[in-house]
Amino acid sequence: MNFGYLIVVSSNSEVDYLKLAYALALSIKNTQRPGYDKVALVIDNPKLVNKLKSPWVFDHVIAWDKETFWDGRSWMDQLSPFDNTVCLDADMLFLRDHSHWIDYFVENSELYIPSKAFTYRGEVITNDHYRKTFTKNNLPNLYSMFTFFKKESKTALEFFELGRYIIKNPIEFSNLFLSKQKPKVLGTDEAFALSAKILDIGDDISYNLDFPNLVHMKPMIQNWPWIADKVTEHAGFYFSTSGSLKIGNYQQYSVIHYVEKDLINDEIVSMLEEIAWDKN
Amino acid sequence: MTKGILIFAHNGPEVDYGTMSIIAGGLAKKHLDLPVSLVTDKWTIAWLKESGMYSKAESTFDKIIEIEKPRTKNTRKLHDGFYSQTIPFVNSNRFSVWDLSPYNQTLLIDSDYLIFSDRLNEYWNTDSSVMLGHSMNDITGERSGILDRRVSETGVHMFWATTVMFTKNEESRFFFKLVDFIKDNYRYYADLFRFDPRQYRNDIAFSVAKHIMNGFETEFVYTLPPILTVFDKDMLHEVNGNRLTFLIDKPLNCGDFWAATTTGVDVHIMNKQSIMRNKEKLLELV
């Protein structure tokens, strides 16, 4: 089986996305089984990778600078070197082995994007604070931070092509399809959801499963009774030298989408590196 | 394997927990068809004798287990309708139930939890060492707040220790030792779990222990059913067989009430004075 994770980053003056991708790749190497731990990085300036202490965590480094910021992820099907790929956001961490998820997807899916995420306390997120566009326009509730696809899939090809076209023409598609609540920025989640709706494949690519379990750390959807700007202003982020993570009083076992980019500091990167070096 | 029910009762200056435990114990014995034992102290026993209730206690309880009354600095504001008073509150020795219970399997209930059904008998054969009441259901369904559902806004799920069922084994022994440890280090755990430390609450200590024992995750597979609760601002108005009539406090309308009834369901009546005002009718049911 040819499988790997794909991370797409580009240079940004405010956030060091390569550092986040490096931490994610380390966490994948530290937790996933051999054969399920390949990582490909797409980056506009590949020379930067050689400055990392362990650049070997990226099995493939692909130079590509056609898009900036998150728009690059919509090209995942064109960029991936793997036959079977999960494309991830850079600001995520793996904390335990989820290789069995991949077995299921390779066996049963051409394209899968989860439709649910969880709070740090393990509750399914139902609050649509950040997703009014989805609810008001009746879009499938896709979380593209974890997108599985097969390279040979015609469905995936059609889906990503339309997604890219939507991102290139946000005003036209917003006016036509998202008139009840137009997004400020038509991002990958909105574009993919709209693509799935137009192609009428929402139920095929996002049916209900008990996995993947993705913890989404945006602050206003954590079922707190007050307004919050950051999760970490209210619940601590405790990363240990053994690679485990507790948020507030909850041990985390799922894949974390931590959102706050400054959480991954040099200390946490060092801890992840130590674990990787011990393992290899 | 022996099964039974246990109730703790330590009288205070304002509340006759001893008599309440006879009502709660008698109803539990009648509807669950199991022996009930009482854990109490010499002062409560003396009052039961003085008030002529001790013979009723002897006939109700399988065993009356006398222990030292714990010293307490704990107080609580206890409402009776819209009147209220702050009273001492002895609740710090529940952790000792593992050592005190004469049964292999024990259902621990509060003395203000009145059982009118056999629903809890469904849980004895569950594959779990310790189970707590899942949550609290306000009788109106509208008045519970976030601190009835969680130990704090960002904190862990609040189980309700009004009902606790456990099997004596190493796991349950460790659980109650942990509850004791949390009680002894309550301020530390309040900092860690972000709850209000000013009044020791068994619900919180038990919830934190449950969370820790479950690997710092919340687990809802093995729990007792939610606790149907009538707040202390409400009043038990009338007892007519298994049918209880309550006057329910209307939020934001002090002194204004709705009427509500329950028939044949287990109910946690937090207004202890109103239980005592209806004690004759309730004792007739025992």
In terms of topology, how is this protein built?
The complex is a heterodimer of chains A (280) and B (286).
Chain A: E1 3-8, H1 17-31, E2 39-43, E3 60-63, H2 76-79, E4 84-88, E5 92-93, H3 99-108, E6 111-112, H4 132-136, E7 146-150, H5 154-168, H6 170-177, H7 188-199, H8 202-205, E8 214-216, E9 237-239, E10 245-247, E11 250-252, E12 255-257, H9 266-279
Parallel strand pairs in A: 1-2, 1-4, 2-3, 8-12
Antiparallel strand pairs in A: 4-7, 5-12, 6-7, 9-10, 10-11
Helix pairs in contact in A: 1-9, 5-7
Chain B: E1 3-8, H1 17-32, E2 36-40, H2 42-50, H3 54-60, E3 63-66, E4 75-80, E5 83-88, H4 97-100, E6 105-109, E7 113-114, E8 130-133, E9 136-138, H5 146-149, E10 160-167, H6 170-184, H7 186-193, H8 202-213, E11 227-230, E12 235-240, E13 243-249, E14 257-263, E15 267-269, H9 272-277, H10 279-285
Parallel strand pairs in B: 1-2, 1-6, 2-3, 9-11, 11-15
Antiparallel strand pairs in B: 4-5, 6-10, 7-15, 8-10, 12-13, 13-14
Please name the CATH architecture of chain B: Alpha-Beta Complex
Shape descriptor of chain A: globular
The first-to-last residue Cα distance of chain A is 22 Å
Q: Name the structural class of chain B.
A: alpha/beta
H and E order of chain B:
EHEHHEEEHEEEEHEHHHEEEEEHH
Give the strand line-up of the largest sheet of chain B. Answer: 3-2-1-6-10-8
Task: Work out the count of structural domains of chain B.
Answer: 1
Indicate the proportion of strand residues of chain B: 25-35%
Major beta-sheet overview of chain A: 6 strands, mixed
Strand content of chain A: 15-25%
Distance between the termini of chain B: 26 Å
Instruction: Could you tell me the CATH topology label of chain B.
Output: Spore Coat Polysaccharide Biosynthesis Protein SpsA, Chain A
Write a brief caption for the model.
Chain A has a single domain (about 5-280), classed as Spore Coat Polysaccharide Biosynthesis Protein SpsA, Chain A, CATH 3.90.550. Helices cover about 30% and strands about 15% of the residues of chain A. Chain A has helices at about 15-30, 75-80, 100-110, 130-135, 155-170, 170-175, 190-200, 200-205, 265-280; strands at about 5-10, 40-45, 60-65, 85-90, 90-95, 110, 145-150, 215, 235-240, 245, 250, 255.
